[in-house]
User: Fold this.
Amino acid sequence: MARIRLLIVDDHEVVRLGLRAAFELEPDINVVGEASDGAEALAKMSVLAPQLILMDVRMERMSGIEACREIKSLYPDVSILMITSYTDNEAVLASMLAGASGYLLKNLSRAELLRSIRLVASGQSLLDPELVKQATSRLTALASSGSQTQGGELTEREREVLVLIARGYTNKQIANTLIVTEKTARNHVSHILEKLGLARRSEAAAFAVEHKLVPPREQHKDEEF
Assistant:
């Protein structure tokens, strides 16, 4: 029986240890490694060659959503299961757009976790069909609505912020990346939503993806992890 090659990605060591312990006695699951954030996960992909990644949504250096998008672009056959402590519809939608196969809450039981891992590893999706329907409808609406400016009304700085939103950055992460205050980052986000006629960050992320405003990431070989 082929074992599921699993990579655990979470910025809390205690959580990683707990998740690893949940799989230790399972004969069909092999935890090939751990990573403390998305950047470390990306750096380890070629060596560990996981089949499935259990990925935390919120991490400091690189969020799970951005890491999911980058990993799926480089390793499309790898399945990614997002896991978080929070119920967040925006994060669910952003995860779906990034290519995740499912979204779990950390308070689920061990049996539910194991079932989810095996389902996703078999090629199935744990995303709610209604959520998929809503996201697809929203993308279609964005493509044909008054937002057809494709970001043309945005300033250069706002376009930079929009790219970071699409990569799953929080206001704090945007501020650190662009070397501005968190208040300035928050104002940029508000202006972007207003100009595009959108209500939520997830819609802005969807807009950026739909209109190909997210440029390809530079080669990771030049980055220090």
